[in-house]
Amino acid sequence: MSSNDYLKFLVSRMVSYLDLPPEVRREERRNRKQSWSYHWFGMLPFSLKLFINKQKGRLRSG
After folding, report:
1. Which residues have a Cβ under 8 Å from the Cβ of 36 and sit 6 or more positions away?
2. Average pLDDT over residues 22-31
3. Average pLDDT, stretch 7-32?
4. Fewest C-beta atoms under 10 Å: which of 28, 41, 52, 60?
5. How far apart (Å, rounded) are the C-alpha atoms in residues 62 and 54?
6. Of 48, 21, 26, which is closest to residue 37 (Cα–Cα)?
7. What's the DSSP call for residue 35?
8. Percent of the chain predicted with pLDDT > 70
9. pLDDT recorded at residue 42
10. d(C-alpha 43, C-alpha 7), whole Å
11. pLDDT of the residue at 62
């Protein structure tokens, strides 16, 4: 792929993105965001974090 082809690709992607209304862009951004740990490892890091925070709370309260 030549640099000219790549530049055409990038420009077409940018133009199609900018043609969308701002509300649609905002909604797509909200739906797209995931943490990297969830993306790569699923629910395991999330459940581990909840468990650790629960244990810390127990230690502090009594």
Report:
1. none
2. 87
3. 90
4. 60
5. 13
6. 48
7. -
8. 97
9. 80
10. 38
11. 62
Tokens found for residue 48 = 């581990």
Structural domain including 38 reads: 3-61
Cα-Cα-Cα-Cα dihedral sign, residues 10, 13, 19, 20: negative
Model confidence, pTM: 0.43
User: Across residues 33-37, what is the average pLDDT?
Assistant: 73
DSSP string, 1-29: --HHHHHHHHHHHHHHHHHS-HHHHHHHH
Domains: count for the chain: 1
Gap between the Cα atoms of 43 and 48, Å rounded: 8
At position 46, the amino acid (one-letter code) is: F
Distance from C-alpha of 62 to C-alpha of 56, rounded to nearest angstrom: 10
